[in-house]
Write a structure and sequence with these properties.
By secondary structure, the chain is an alpha+beta fold. The protein has 2 domains: 53-187, no CATH class; 192-343, Rossmann fold (3-Layer(aba) Sandwich), CATH 3.40.50. The chain has helices at 10-34, 37-51, 74-86, 141-146, 148-152, 166-187, 198-201, 226-241, 243-248, 267-278, 293-301, 339-343, and strands at residues 59-65, 94-97, 106-109, 113-119, 122-132, 153-162, 192-196, 208-212, 281-285, 307-311, 321-322, 327-328. The strands form 4 sheets. The chain has a 4-stranded antiparallel β-sheet with strand order 1-6-5-4. 9% of the residues are buried. Pfam families: AAA (PF00004), AAA_assoc (PF14363). One of its GO terms (molecular function) is ATP binding. InterPro entries: AAA_N_dom (IPR025753), ATPase_AAA_core (IPR003959), Mitochondrial_chaperone_BCS1 (IPR050747), P-loop_NTPase (IPR027417).
Length: 344
């Protein structure tokens, strides 16, 4: 015998839905209005941990900590840039900042978040954790006094995945994240011109000062013989592609050009065009400010990789052999930079 089933009418369903929705909104408003933020974060975290399925015994987790106050963790910085770029719509709370020299906005995490990602058939889960540091976790009281803001919080990423994919995550996924972020940085890079600061010239310490190099010269606008221009571009492209070849044969990955001519013949414009083409910073070195080979070595060690070093008036600044006398031409008093050290 069949019994009739009485389904609720559409108006009653809509009324019930509206009542539940209004109750949820009212409850959320009361929580946001009367509970402090730290208590709200604790409650939401508790609810998330209660309903979110726990990691299976076959899962593995990699912890990526923020760098200390002396040096940065490149993997942590890359992970934050990568996740903020691809998952902004999934992040609930963001922190935005822009320095005067930045080309655009910098987006960072503002609170703990959970973000999913896929790579080569793998399911990965990123968890950003930002929590207050306990007093007992402080390792250096003097650094805490100098950097009070950085000592108050600790933050790190947890990357969880199936244990069977551990090698693939370490050897493929994380390098992919680093390469992706490096490409993003190169695309948005601002070229800078570096010069030795006054403190270095006065003998205090080696410091490079920098400003934005906003030079309009490019190979498209450069007035140069077309064949010579093509030769330089092809040579630069070939040099970039042969980085691993230089490493295999045990040679330093560097390329040198000698530019000569009277003032106003386009030497600086060519350097700017090369810098704009390669997206390399430019280091302008006046050898008159470097007294000894040891100082020159210290100066060069403080230049960045993938950069252009410009040495002006090199014929007037180093000891060059005098073919007539068989000796060295005299140089300024107290300056001992040799040509061989400069080439090496």
């Amino acid at each position: 015998m069949a019994f009739p089933i009485n389904f609720p009418s559409a108006p009653s369903l809509f009324s019930a839905y509206a009542t539940v929705s209004a109750s949820i909104v009212l409850l959320q408003t009361m929580i946001n209005s009367f509970l402090p933020r730290w208590l709200r974060d604790y409650l939401w975290g508790f609810i998330y941990r209660y309903f979110h399925p726990k990691a299976s015994p076959r899962s593995a987790t990699i912890v990526i900590e923020d760098g200390d106050r002396i040096s940065a963790n490149v993997v942590y910085d890359a992970a934050e840039i990568y996740l903020c770029d691809r998952s902004q719509s999934d992040i609930e709370r963001l922190k935005v900042l822009k320095r005067p020299s930045d080309p655009g906005l910098t987006v960072k995490f503002a609170k703990s978040e959970v973000i999913s990602d896929r790579f080569d058939g793998m399911e990965l889960e990123w968890r950003f954790v930002r929590e207050e540091r306990k007093n007992s976790e402080s390792r250096d009281k003097e650094l805490d006094r100098l950097f009070p803001d950085s000592s108050a919080w600790k933050q790190f990423f947890e990357l969880s995945f199936d244990k069977i994919n551990k090698e693939k995550v370490i050897n493929s996924y994380l390098p992919y994240v680093l390469q992706r972020v490096e490409a993003m940085k190169e695309a948005n890079k601002i070229i800078r011109l570096h010069t030795l600061s006054t403190t270095c010239i006065l003998g205090s310490r080696i410091v490079w000062d920098s400003i934005t190099l906003d030079h309009p010269s490019t190979f498209e606008t450069l007035a140069m013989d077309p064949q010579l221009k093509k030769f330089i571009i092809d040579d630069l492209d070939r040099f970039l592609k042969r980085k691993q070849l230089y490493r295999r044969v045990g040679k330093a990955w560097k390329r040198g050009y000698l530019l000569y001519g009277p003032p106003g013949t386009g030497k600086s414009s060519l350097i700017a065009a090369i810098a704009n083409y390669l997206k390399f910073d430019v280091y302008d070195l006046e050898l008159s400010s470097v007294k000894r080979d040891s100082d020159l070595r210290s100066v060069l060690l403080r230049t960045a990789n993938r950069s252009i070093l410009v040495i002006e008036d090199i014929d007037c600044s180093v000891q060059l052999p005098d073919r007539g006398s068989g000796g060295l031409q005299p140089r300024g008093h107290g300056q001992e930079v040799s040509f061989s050290h400069l080439l090496n």
